[in-house]
Design a protein that fits this description.
This protein is α/β, with parallel strands linked by helices and 342 residues long. The protein contains ten helices and 15 strands.
């Protein structure tokens, strides 16, 4: 059995405790949480698990092989660095760190120690996201033009990071995986209304190789919970709606025709429609499971069998690099900010 220490039992931590403790290959040996009331709930729910308010107690526990970190972003670096120094494998929730130099240090430390460093970009373990990846690998859509990604809800409003670091981190990780690498530049504007210095909504455009554009709209000040992606390709178009659990993906056989004959004067709706192709809509069957369970299983595979993580430290670092570029652009009023090639 792989012994797990979970640090952080707040919003997301209980889900991680459940997945690793109710598993045939792992068990949670210790949980660390500063909130005494929350820790008492953990102790009541999992009476066989040791609880503590001291991170060092969890890290030094003799039965711990891996540490799972679900704490505020500002604490990720110190906790992950201490866990790696103690010889533990690490799964840290997104984002990897609050700054790229911290991310680089964690990646270097994990590689030097021969330990797994994995980032909880949970949407890459979503069956629908993985199905879209297969469409792109098979070139089903043809040359890609652009992606439009919207992630909104009313709350929860964060105090430690802005909407980009909280929400856009998910979409950046998806776009980077689908497009086989990070963007080359970012341009963004943000709005601050609730807490000074913390953007509640961010609109960002990312430039990827081959002239692919990715537009992001993230907000925790929106009446509708939306997780929607549109991909426009040369041959076909695709939509992914993560809120539609039954039919998340639609593939549209729609495109601008290869040979467009433009009348000298277009004054009818029929003339306008003559320049586009309208085809069938395909709705593939996608067996949607629990992405977090898939992520936890994958982490255990990496620890037990030495597999390379799908969302490894370097992948998490690329997301942090992009978030920093968005942050710089917002501060500069939308200026296009280049990303350093790694």
């Amino acid at each position: 059995m792989i012994g797990i220490a979970v640090i952080g039992a707040g919003h997301w931590g209980p889900n991680l405790i459940r997945n690793f403790h109710n598993h045939d290959r792992s068990e949670v040996r210790v949980v660390c949480e500063l909130d005494g009331a929350r820790l008492a709930q953990v102790a009541a729910r999992f009476p066989d698990v040791e609880v503590t308010t001291e991170a060092q107690v969890a890290l030094a526990h003799p039965g711990v092989d891996a540490v799972v970190i679900a704490t505020p972003t500002s604490t990720h670096f110190a906790l992950a660095a201490a866990a790696l120094a103690a010889g533990r494998h690490v799964l840290v929730e997104k984002p990897l760190a609050a700054r790229s130099e911290e991310g680089v240090a964690l990646c270097d430390a994990a590689e030097a120690a021969g330990r797994v460093l994995m980032v909880g970009h949970v949407f890459l373990y979503n069956a629908g996201v993985q199905r879209v990846r297969r469409y792109l690998e098979a070139n089903e859509l043809g040359r890609l033009y652009y992606l439009s990604m919207t992630r909104t809800n009313l709350g929860p409003i964060r105090m430690d990071v802005d909407a980009a670091w909280d929400l856009a981190a998910h979409d950046i990780s998806i776009a980077n995986w689908w497009l086989d690498g990070p963007p080359r530049w970012a341009s963004a504007r943000g709005g601050t209304w609730i807490n000074a210095g913390i953007e509640d909504a961010v609109f960002a455009t990312l430039g990827y190789p081959d002239d692919v554009l990715v537009h992001l709209h993230v907000s925790w000040l929106n009446p509708r919970k939306t997780r929607d992606i549109t991909i426009v390709g040369e041959r076909r178009m695709l939509t992914f709606d993560d809120m539609n659990l039954a039919e998340p993906i639609r593939v549209y056989d729609k495109r601008v025709t290869e040979e467009v004959v433009t009348p000298s004067f277009i004054d009818t709706f029929a003339s306008f429609r003559a320049s586009v192709r309208e085809g069938d809509i395909t709705i593939p069957k996608v067996a949607m499971g629990e992405p977090l369970k898939t992520e936890c299983d994958h982490f255990l595979d990496c620890v037990q069998f030495g597999k390379a993580p799908l969302t490894g430290g370097r992948d998490g670092l690329a997301v942090v690099d992009t978030l920093e570029a968005i942050e710089r652009s917002v501060a500069a009023g939308g200026r296009e900010e280049p990303l350093e090639a790694r």
